[in-house]
Hints:
The chain is α/β, with parallel strands linked by helices. The protein has helices at residues 37-55, 71-80, 84-101, 117-129, 159-165, 206-218, 232-247, 278-282, 287-295, 307-333, 341-349, 351-362, 367-384, 391-407, 420-435, 439-451, and strands at residues 2-5, 10-13, 21-26, 59-64, 133-135, 141-143, 182-187, 202-204, 222-228, 252-258, 261-263, 266-267, 303-305, 454-459, 462-467. The protein starts with a strand and ends with a strand.
Amino acid sequence: MKIYNTMTRQKEEFVPLTEGKLLMYVCGPTVYNYIHIGNARPMIVFDTFRRYMEYKGYEVNYVSNFTDVDDKIIQKAAQEGVDASVVSARYITECKKDMEDLNVMPATVHPLATEEIDGMIEMTGQLIDKGYAYVAEDGTVYFRTGKFKDYGKLSHKNLEDLQAGHRDIQVTGELKESPSDFVLWKPKKEGEPFWNSPWCEGRPGWHMECSVMSKKYLGETIDIHAGGEDLIFPHHENEIAQSEAASGRPFARYWMHNGFLNIDNHKMSKSAGNFFTVREIGEKYDLQVLRFFMLSAHYRSPLNFSAELMEAAKSSLERILTAADNLTRLRDAARAGAMTDEETKLYEAADVFRQKFGQAMDDDCNTADAVAAVFELVKYINLNASAEHTKEYLQKLYDCLHTLCGVLGIRIEREAQLLDADIEKLIEERTAARKNKDFARADQIRDELAGLGILLKDTREGVTWKRV
């Protein structure tokens, strides 16, 4: 298969370090709030890539971290009057719930930055010893970018230009030798969490966290490092510099980056009022719809999110689920017995869609074309599955659809859930019970609905509800 390597800016044949194995690191979220739909895109696309590699027979070691110490976490904790660890633990739990609802598989390891501080102090010390880092008067440790000759090779930025005054990508400081030098360790501020180090009481720089976690769980050189394209510079560029300076070896052989997600053709931001969490989208749609929407475009392409496009994704996904429902109904009612010769030929002819699916995924994880192949299979199934066919034949068609959708992380088995009309009927019954002062029954209905993920809210205008 071929992968577009951000480092070389071209598609390259994927050759793993060890045959049959894949070492992959994907930068995870900073856990200070619910994840937003921009966070969800790399989770979904690289989970799909991982699923496909496992489908191809690879043994995948997939590491994705949680950044659980950060300025935003500390700020949130201060606002709430709690320890930063309380905030990070809460939102790690919430993130894992959203990932489960998105059908994102748990990583092989989900390391936490705060549990790997010793490794970060060790690597920082190595960089100081090798002359790649220096300690400022206040105890801050900076990486000396001018000493790393390949600095800028991923982002294709020129160090001289950076040092000349590109203010949008620099942080100037009197204690730095150069404006482009970046922090490996920084001193604590009043009320912040901190760890002891040889330089000061403080905490690691963000870039250092991922380098150390990748090294610990995958090794000094890995197959693939991935994340959103907003991480190319400075995060991934700095990871490369400090990792390769410390080890003297290549950090990652392939770099994969997903494109930006826009909202109604505008950049997503809280100030613009177009910021959506995964949890909020889950109140309106089954999150399988969001996953399907994300996979309907190539991962490197910019993706525009809108209500109209989500409705289109919902309708498209429904076509697949309806085909699966029909197959299940036909299979359950079908006669037993081996496939006929005609059925064998029909099933063998369906293999062309599996091949198309594989060709699309082998071409830089082209999920858009893979989804198109699934729709071709659905059309074929609708034309070539009937009550006259054997159970074995219908089961094989179902298994083929199930397998390909499984690679995409799309569940084709519908979860049993109350219809809107059933919910409204129960709400009417609860309203009547309250009028009759049968509060025990009213509370019982509320609890039953809550257990099914239906949250009621009593207002002056009546009862409203939503799925959670």
